[in-house]
């Protein structure tokens, strides 16, 4: 099996896939071991799976402190990983939830993050957390990056990206939300 061979060779993306496959085949324990190996072996933002967020504080080995530390380590050398940190810090079911830390990731984003920015604004509103002017400016800078992607969609790359491509209507809605906060 090619996926297994690549996983055994140390490719984190293949390890995530092989772990999922094993869990789907009812081999939960072995599958989870492969997922943990993938998480600990990640070296680039692209290798940080959203499993890390969804499993945070729910699956042994995916404790908030561990997940956050690995993401921070990877972000030091792979700036696209700041998107995963933003997503982690806005996930309310994880002990790493922290809107101040989330806000600190926004100016560091290297890719369009329209869905994650919308999530940040929604959670901030739900929790009554203020969105300061500097954060709103950083969000507008990211929206400008997104607008360039709408005009000239990037090629598929080996970087962390939102799971849905950005549309102009998404940008318009986020712009309206930011304008409302300015009032």
Q: Count of DSSP E strands?
A: 0
Helix-strand category: mainly alpha
Approximately what portion of the residues adopt beta-strand conformation? Answer: under 5%
Number of helices: 10
User: Could you say which overall geometry the principal axes of the C-alpha atoms support?
Assistant: globular
Task: Give the SSE order as H and E letters.
Answer: HHHHHHHHHH
Please give the largest β-sheet: none
Radius of gyration: 17 Å
Q: Which regions contain 5 or more consecutive residues with pLDDT less than 50?
A: none
How far from one another are the termini?
58 Å
Percentage of residues in helical conformation: 55-70%
What's the rounded overall pLDDT mean?
A: 91
Q: How would you describe this protein?
A:
This protein has 183 residues and is mainly α. 63% of the residues lie in helices and 0% in strands.
Short description:
By secondary structure, the protein is mainly alpha-helical.
């Amino acid at each position: 099996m090619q996926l297994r061979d690549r996983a055994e060779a140390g490719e984190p993306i293949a390890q995530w896939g092989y772990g999922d496959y094993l869990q789907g085949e009812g081999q939960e324990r072995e599958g989870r071991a492969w997922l943990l190996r993938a998480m600990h072996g990640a070296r680039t933002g692209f290798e940080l799976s959203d499993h890390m967020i969804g499993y945070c504080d729910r699956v042994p080995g995916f404790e908030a402190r561990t997940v956050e530390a690995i993401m921070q380590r990877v972000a030091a050398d792979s700036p696209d990983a700041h998107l995963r940190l933003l997503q982690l810090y806005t996930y309310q079911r994880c002990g790493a939830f922290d809107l101040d830390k989330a806000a600190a990731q926004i100016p560091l984003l290297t890719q369009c993050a329209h869905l994650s920015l919308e999530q940040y604004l929604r959670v901030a509103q739900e929790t009554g957390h203020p969105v300061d002017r500097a954060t709103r400016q950083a969000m507008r800078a990211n929206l400008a990056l997104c607008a360039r992607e709408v005009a000239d969609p990037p090629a598929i790359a080996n970087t962390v990206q939102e799971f849905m491509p950005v549309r102009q209507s998404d940008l318009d809605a986020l712009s309206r939300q930011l304008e409302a906060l300015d009032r």
